[in-house]
Amino acid sequence: MPEFLPAPGHVTVIVIDPALIPEESTTACLSAAEQDQAARFHFEKDARHWRACRTALRRILGAALELDPAYLSFHLGTHGKPLLPPPRHGLHFNLSHCRDLALVALCQTGPVGIDLEPADRAPTLIGCESAFCHPDEIARFPTSSEERAARLLDLWTSKESLLKALGTGLSLSPESVSLATGNASDHPLLRDFTIHRLDHPLLRDHIAHLAAPQEILRIGIFEFPG
Questions:
Q1: CA–CA separation, 158 vs 121, rounded Å?
Q2: What pLDDT is recorded for position 218?
Q3: Which domain holds residue 203?
Q4: Which residues face 222 on adjacent strands?
Q5: Total-model pTM
Q6: Any domain includes 4
Q7: Which three-class secondary structure state does DSSP give residue 104?
Q8: Gyration radius of the chain over CA positions
Q9: Other CB atoms within 10 Å distance of the CB of residue 133
Q10: Quick check: is 41 in a domain?
Q11: Is 20 within a domain?
Q12: Tens digits of per-residue pLDDT, 92-133?
């Protein structure tokens, strides 16, 4: 297993294939509360996927902190973002998952946010522009429906990563944030973050963006299980 703990100024991103996480490993790793949460899913395949992603998160954090994953505890920020409690709160993390993959971002420099979507979701966003796009962004949309759909998915994942890094949930509406001119926002709450589009062979059918502190110098991408 690679060294997941990022150096100051670095971010570690881990690409997870949940199908490779043995179901039996989740029983020993997850808390009773997490098992209960998984049991609330209507379909067992969704419960298995959630347990696998959560188990991978625990194992990754455990490896980074040199702790037994089963003994990790979490608490929720004001708006529900999971955090590590003191004295380990200096390791910031974020998890995103879709139907077949998951991503975890780790950073010691400051909060991070990550978002992942299958690329084939792009056409479903046409017609939803006003729900999450700033007027300046809409004014710059390409006329081609294919290019417009791709731009919408880029904006969706970029803004999701930003809002997840900020950790305020929907208290900041995505349509109030403009990314019309680049990979950063001049919004007072978001100007300290830069957005990075992630590139990796396992992400070839996905769109993924990372929001990280501006001073980040390097992003390392690993696979899990590796």
A1: 15
A2: 97
A3: 10-224
A4: 14
A5: 0.94
A6: no
A7: strand
A8: 18
A9: 25
A10: yes
A11: yes
A12: 999 999 999 999 999 999 999 999 999 999 999 999 999 999
Number of compact structural domains in the chain:
1
Are 177 and 134 in contact by the 8 Å Cβ rule? The answer is yes
Retrieve residue 58's tokens: 């625990």
* Residue with tokens 């992630």, as numbered in its chain: 198
State which amino acid sits at residue 89.
H
Cβ neighbours, 10 Å, residue 56 = 26
Q: Would you say residue 184 lies in a domain? A: yes
**Of 165, 48, 154, 171, residue with least CA distance to 110:** 165
User: E strands within 43-192?
Assistant: 75-76, 82-83, 92-97, 102-107, 113-118
- β-strands 10-16, 75-76: how paired? unpaired
What pLDDT, in 10s, does the model give residues 131-188? 999 999 999 999 999 999 999 999 999 999 999 999 987 678 999 999 988 877 878 8
Lookup result for tokens 């995505």: 174
DSSP 8-state assignment for residue 187: S
Helical pair 32-39 and 44-65, crossing angle rounded to 10 deg: 150
Q: What is the reported pLDDT for 106?
A: 98
Per the DSSP assignment, residues forming a β-bridge with 194 are 212
How many CA atoms, within 13 angstroms, populate the side-chain half-sphere of residue 9?
3
CATH of the domain at 172: 3.90.470.20
Handedness of CA 47, 48, 49, 54 (dihedral sign): positive
Amino acid 2: pLDDT = 55
